[in-house]
């Protein structure tokens, strides 16, 4: 299976059945540059303003402690998630739904910029203007996920703590002013190593997220455009990003829960290894504990993924158009200069 790597939207033509399909004479258009490195990070920051309240609710649900005898599947109900959001806004204020926004934006500016930027860069290196194979996409997404997870870890620690602060007893709340204040206080009060607590589970989640989100997006996009002969535009991008969000939420849920628990844990619990914590969760809460907050995670990741990919595709289009205009202008200037010299 192969996936499309082109950043352009190909003009459509009508076949005998009236179906709009990409015109074949443009499929081999060559691009001399990789997509802009910053596009994915910028798009993710835009999407954060939409998804942050759902992300906060997801963290709150994941860090609630339950006993094993509770009905596990009740935690998936959408009504529970919106009830928690309503409770937060009523008891802590509407602004509380955006607690940790600065840390979330910092995280997207590092974690997502590196993931998306390196993924596109690696795709361009291994395939240039050709379609990368599925194996190449897996390699690119894995490498980008590892590096993105490592660089985004400190801001992710602060993000989770700020989001979870509201449901802690007053004497246990950290009350970080913003992301930078959180990182400074963690280094001063607990030591710099705490900023990398849970790095293993966080990096594993970043790899799974990058594979299940970006690789599946390219695969679904290729399926809709090539297989179903959709036009490479808004409809195909929306369907592909929604499908990718479903895959990513399900694949990443277990490690996402473990990551949230480790990052928000007190000192003793935070020292547990990933596998020890997973075994403890299974023993005390059952298999359903690995999917705590799935609905909240999907409601958060669905809009975030859709907005991210739609904005990113638009940014890539604009960047390509500007590059082509600059190239045309440079060519015209060179031609004029050559003509003047000859004259």
From TrEMBL:
Keywords: Membrane, Mitochondrion, Repeat, Transmembrane, Transmembrane helix, Transport. PANTHER family: MITOCHONDRIAL DICARBOXYLATE CARRIER-RELATED (PTHR45618). Residues 1-33 are annotated as: Disordered. Belongs to the mitochondrial carrier (TC 2.A.29) family. Residues 1-10 have a biased composition (Polar residues). Gene3D superfamilies: Mitochondrial carrier domain. One of its GO terms (cellular component) is mitochondrial membrane. Pfam families: Mito_carr. Solcar repeats lie at residues 31-125, 135-223, 232-318. GO terms for biological process: transmembrane transport. Residues 11-27 have a biased composition (Low complexity). This is Mitochondrial carrier domain-containing protein. It comes from Phascolomyces articulosus. PROSITE patterns: SOLCAR. It is a multi-pass membrane protein. It is found in: Mitochondrion membrane.
């Amino acid at each position: 299976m192969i996936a499309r790597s082109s950043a352009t939207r190909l003009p459509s033509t009508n076949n005998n059945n009236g179906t709009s399909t990409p015109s074949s004479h443009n499929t081999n258009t060559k691009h001399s540059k990789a997509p802009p490195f910053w596009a994915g990070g910028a798009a993710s920051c835009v999407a954060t303003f939409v998804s942050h309240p759902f992300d906060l609710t997801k963290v709150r649900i994941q860090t609630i402690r339950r006993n094993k005898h509770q009905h596990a599947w009740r935690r998936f109900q959408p009504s529970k998630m919106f009830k928690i959001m309503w409770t937060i806004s009523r008891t802590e204020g509407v602004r509380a739904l955006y607690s940790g926004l600065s840390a979330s934006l910092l995280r997207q500016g590092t974690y997502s910029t590196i993931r998306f930027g390196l993924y596109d860069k690696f795709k361009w290196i291994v395939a240039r203007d050709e379609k990368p194979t599925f194996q190449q996409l897996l390699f690119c997404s894995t490498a980008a996920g590892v590096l993105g997870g490592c660089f985004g870890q400190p801001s992710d620690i602060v993000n989770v703590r700020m989001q979870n602060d509201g449901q802690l007893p007053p004497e246990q709340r950290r009350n970080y002013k913003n992301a930078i204040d959180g990182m400074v206080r963690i280094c001063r009060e607990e030591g710099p190593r705490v900023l990398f607590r849970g790095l293993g589970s966080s990096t594993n989640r970043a790899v799974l997220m990058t594979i299940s989100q970006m690789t599946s997006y390219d695969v679904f996009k290729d399926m809709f455009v090539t297989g179903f002969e959709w036009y490479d535009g808004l409809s195909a991008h929306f369907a592909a990003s929604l499908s990718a969000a479903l895959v990513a939420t399900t694949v990443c849920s277990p490690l996402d829960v473990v990551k949230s628990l480790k990052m928000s844990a007190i000192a003793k619990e935070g020292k547990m290894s990933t596998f020890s914590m997973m075994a403890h969760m299974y023993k005390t809460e059952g298999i359903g504990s690995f999917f705590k907050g799935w609905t909240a995670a999907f409601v958060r990741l669905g809009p975030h993924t859709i907005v991210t990919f739609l904005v990113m595709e638009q940014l890539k289009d604009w960047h390509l158009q500007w590059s082509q205009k600059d190239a045309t202008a440079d060519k015209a200037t060179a031609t004029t200069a050559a003509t003047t010299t000859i004259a």
